[in-house]
Amino acid sequence: MAIDLSPKLAKKVYGGDGGSYCAWSPSDLAMLREGNIGAAKLALEKNGFALPRYSDSAKVAYVLQGNGVAGIVLPEKEEKVVALKKGDAIALPFGVVTWWYNKEDTELVVLLLGDTSKAHKTGEFTDFFLTGSHGIFTGFSAEFVSRAWDVDEDAVRSLVGNQTAEGIVKLDESFEMPEPKEEHREGFVYNCEEAPLDVDIKDGGKVVVLNTKNLPLVAEVGLGADLVKLDGGAMCSPGFSCDSALQVTYIVSGGGRVQIVGVDGQRVLETTVKAGHLFIVPRFFVVSKICDPDGMSWFSIITTPNPVFTHLAGRTSVWKALSPQVLEASFKVSPDVEQLFRSKRMNEEIFFPPPK
Question: Which residues pair with 88 in a beta bridge?
Fold first, then answer.
């Protein structure tokens, strides 16, 4: 597979005083196009407001930093005004209209990962803005807009022409946006920082999985996700998705080393990663990570809402299921070596602490 799998950083697409929108391009990260995946980051400064838009792709949003507010409108439904905080994962199916706002001093940063199989451009999100310099209604004639909205053409010129910003604006300090409602989080948001742990291994790492059980709306998005925190120097077991799914990984904090092995046992990637890097593991390829002494965390989406992984080391690995004779014959080793191999990692699942 002659595709560059090297991790990449996002590049700025547009922005101004209110914040910025950055994205990963298929021209830099070819696996986005190959895997029909889009990836972007929205960053809002204090009083930054991301104008209402809808997208050609279903997504999972993940709050990397800060606190803020999002408006979410499903087709033919009322607006949900949702408070956001670090660790929130939000399912955004097709047809949803969203806006985003930050009233705090700390920058609000939201990661957006999604499926572009139905998008206009493979491997890229295309947003359709309701207002602003690129708003949908700038393309209609005043007559059409006037009749659609039942206002005169002077009002049309104000409504369509006054907002000249592209995508993101900075609101006046005194401007009051809608207040979020706690009940509006229900069914839309799942906080991965506060959720019960799905895996917790001492000196190894922790995992929280996002799936249809804890956020049913991800079934409409068609994606699963997880947040993984690896303790200093620990290793994540070599493994692969056994349901023909891609894994898209964003490094949230820390750093470490990554190896990916593909067809015919060829190592297709050996690199170091740091916060802000994004990389993609192709279907059925095996990936493993070892983090630096300060630890590493990452947020991943998997292109199925309820992913299943096969691990190739540890207590739950396939090796433990195979019979001794099969291992002896496959490795071409003696029973003593097979027994030594089988005796290791008996009490550890998918994370292994650093050597003592």
Answer: 191
Evaluate whether 168 touches 20 at the Cβ level (below 8 Å). yes
Using an 8 Å Cβ cutoff, are 349 and 315 in contact? Answer: yes
| DSSP class of 78 | -
Confidence (pLDDT) at 222: 94
Give the whole-angstrom CA distance, residue 144 versus residue 335. Answer: 81
This prediction has a pTM of: 0.94
Which own/partner pairs from 157-165 qualify as long-range (CB within 8 Å, at least 24 positions apart)? 160/135, 163/51, 163/131, 163/132, 163/133, 163/135, 164/132, 164/133, 165/16, 165/18, 165/51, 165/132, 165/133
Give tens-digit pLDDT for 230-249. Answer: 999 999 999 998 877 899 99
The answer to whether 97 touches 54, Cβ cutoff 8 Å, is yes
DSSP string, 66-129: --EEEEEE-TTS--EEEEE-TTEEEEE-TT-EEEEEE-SSSPEEEEEEEE-TTSSSTT---EEE
The single-letter code of the amino acid at 185 is R
Query: Could you read off the pLDDT of 156-185 as tens digits, one per residue?
Result: 999 999 999 999 999 999 999 999 999 999
Residue 195 in 3-state DSSP? coil
**Residues 78-130 pLDDT 10s:** 999 999 999 999 999 999 999 999 999 999 999 999 999 999 999 999 999 99
The CA-atom distances, in angstroms, between 145 and each of 55, 138, 152, 165 are 22, 9, 9, 20
Per the DSSP assignment, residues forming a β-bridge with 251 are: 298
